[in-house]
Write a structure and sequence with these properties.
Elements: H1 2-24, E1 27-32, E2 36-38, E3 42-52, E4 55-58, E5 71-75, E6 79-82, E7 86-96, E8 101-105, E9 109-114, E10 121-124, E11 128-133, H2 156-184
Parallel strand pairs: 2-11
Antiparallel strand pairs: 1-3, 3-7, 4-9, 5-7, 6-7, 8-11, 9-10
Length: 188
C-alpha cells in the first residue's frame, strides 16, 4: 500500500514536470497531419507561435495558395491559449494539391515586438515537405461504367410532411363544402 502511494506521487510529479517543460517552449512551429497524400486529398497544416504575454504579433496572411502547387481550401480561426507567462497563437489551414510531386512548404515568418517598443523581431518556422502521389491506374483493363444512384424506399419520417399536407388540404376542402351547404340552407 505504501509503494502505491509513492508510485502515484512520482507519476503526479512527472506529469507536472512534463506540463511545466512544455509551457517553457517558445517560438514558432508548424506541422502537417501527414507528409504524403494522394492528389486532391486534403490535410491540415497548422502553424503558430508561443511568446511572452507582453509581445504583439503581426500575424502572417496567405493568399489562396501556399505555393504554386499547394492550395488553401479552408482557413481556421486564430486560436489563443494563455499560460502563466506566455501566450500561444495557432491557426489551422486545410490544404490540398492537384499536382503530383515532392513540394516544399515555405517557412512562416512571424514579426513581433514588445508592447512599448517600436523595434520588430522576426522568427520563422521550419520548412515542411509534402509528397503528392498519383493513383495507380491499370489501363490494360477495360473501364467500368459509373454506377447510378441506388434507390432507397421512403421512410415514414420522410412521408409524414406529405401525409399531413394532404390531410390538411382535405380538411380545408371539407370545411369549405360544409360552409357552402349551410349557407344555401340559410342555417346558422
Amino acid at each position: 500500500m505504501k509503494d502505491l502511494k509513492y508510485i502515484s506521487l512520482l507519476v503526479l510529479l512527472g506529469l507536472l514536470f512534463i506540463n511545466s517543460a512544455k509551457a517553457q517552449q517558445s517560438g514558432p512551429w508548424s506541422s502537417l497531419d501527414s507528409n504524403a497524400i494522394m492528389i486532391g486529398d486534403q490535410i491540415n497544416y497548422e502553424f503558430g507561435i508561443t511568446l511572452p504575454k507582453d509581445m504583439i504579433v503581426n500575424w502572417p496572411m496567405f493568399a489562396d495558395t501556399l505555393t504554386s502547387n499547394i492550395e488553401i481550401i479552408k482557413r481556421g480561426n486564430i486560436d489563443t491559449t494563455y499560460s502563466y507567462s506566455d501566450i500561444s497563437l495557432a491557426q489551422k489551414l486545410v490544404i490540398t494539391s492537384f499536382d503530383s510531386g515532392y513540394f516544399a512548404i515555405p517557412p512562416v515568418d512571424f514579426k513581433f515586438k514588445h508592447e512599448n517598443d517600436s523595434n520588430y523581431f522576426s522568427s520563422s518556422t521550419g520548412t515542411l515537405f509534402l509528397q503528392v502521389y498519383v493513383p495507380e491506374v491499370d489501363t490494360s483493363n477495360a473501364f467500368k461504367p459509373v454506377v447510378g444512384p441506388i434507390k432507397e424506399p421512403y421512410t415514414f419520417r420522410e412521408l409524414l410532411p406529405t401525409i399531413l399536407a394532404i390531410v390538411g388540404v382535405l380538411l380545408l376542402i371539407g370545411l369549405i363544402i360544409y360552409y357552402i351547404i349551410k349557407r344555401r340552407k340559410n342555417q346558422p
